[in-house]
Design goal:
Blueprint: E1 10-14, H1 18-23, H2 29-48, E2 54-61, H3 69-83, H4 87-92, E3 95-100, H5 110-120, E4 127-135, H6 137-150, H7 160-165, E5 177-180, E6 199-202, H8 212-224
Parallel strand pairs: 1-2, 1-5, 2-4, 3-4, 5-6
Helix pairs in contact: 2-3, 3-5
Length: 232
């Protein structure tokens, strides 16, 4: 049994490979996203059951707007469905939802829907699912600087902790380990400030193929590593 003290508190996930999963099966791209969305409903609970407290999932980046209009519209509809039609799934699982990103710039009533989801799950205690939506690591830092400037904070008291306070959800703590599926070995701007000492774990399988055993493997891999934080 995994030693609780060695379980990562915060796991970041770059959910990559939906489109390639679909292409390799001669399916429409949107079918890959639909399958990937199904995994987003399952995977956080697998980690929470292992003792993880926070899962941050990279759902849609600020760069993803450059994809086809059809694909973007479908992704937005999927997110709306998750937060309206299937919303009670998160409450039944006792999962708290929060969001990181430029939420106010999302189309239609999605900003309000995200706000309602946060409000209506705030008392849940199983674990926190941080959905990074319209998110970019550089955008997050820029937005933090804008908030600092707006607050007219003196340069004399400006520090790393001060910057962290003005990130989208700086109180979550940094991810202990970041997982990327699909075989790509880069962070693509995910948790740019927060990932400075995160362990990195790259998987060859596509996100729609992520299984319960993979969550356990991530935790086991984290347990096997010695984190030094530059001190040794």
């Amino acid at each position: 049994m995994t030693d609780k003290k060695n379980v990562p508190r915060h796991v970041g996930i770059i959910m990559d490979g939906n489109r390639r999963w679909a292409r390799e099966r001669n399916l429409p791209t949107i079918e890959g996203h639909r399958k990937g969305y199904g995994k987003l409903k399952q995977v956080p609970e697998w980690f929470f059951n292992l003792g993880v407290e926070v899962v941050s999932a990279y759902a849609f980046s600020t760069e993803n707007w450059s994809r086809s209009r059809e694909e973007v519209n479908y992704l937005m509809k999927l997110m709306k469905k998750a937060l309206t039609e299937n919303f009670e799934d998160f409450n039944k699982k006792n999962i708290k939802l929060i969001f990181s990103g430029r939420i106010d710039e999302l189309p239609g009533d999605l900003p309000e829907i995200c706000g309602n989801a946060t409000m209506n799950t705030k008392e849940n205690t199983k674990g926190i699912l941080n959905i990074c939506l319209n998110y970019g690591g550089r955008a997050e830092i820029v937005d933090a600087i804008k908030r600092i400037v707006k607050k007219k904070i003196s340069m004399d008291i400006l520090s790393e902790e001060m910057v962290k306070k003005y990130l989208y959800n700086g109180n979550l703590g940094d991810p202990d380990i970041i997982v990327r599926t699909s075989g790509e070995k880069r962070l693509s701007g995910f948790q740019l400030w927060e990932s400075v000492y995160s362990e990195l774990y790259f998987m060859d399988k596509y996100w729609p193929d992520f299984e319960k055993a993979d969550a356990a493997n991530v935790v086991d891999e984290y347990n096997s590593r010695k984190r030094r934080f530059g001190g040794e």
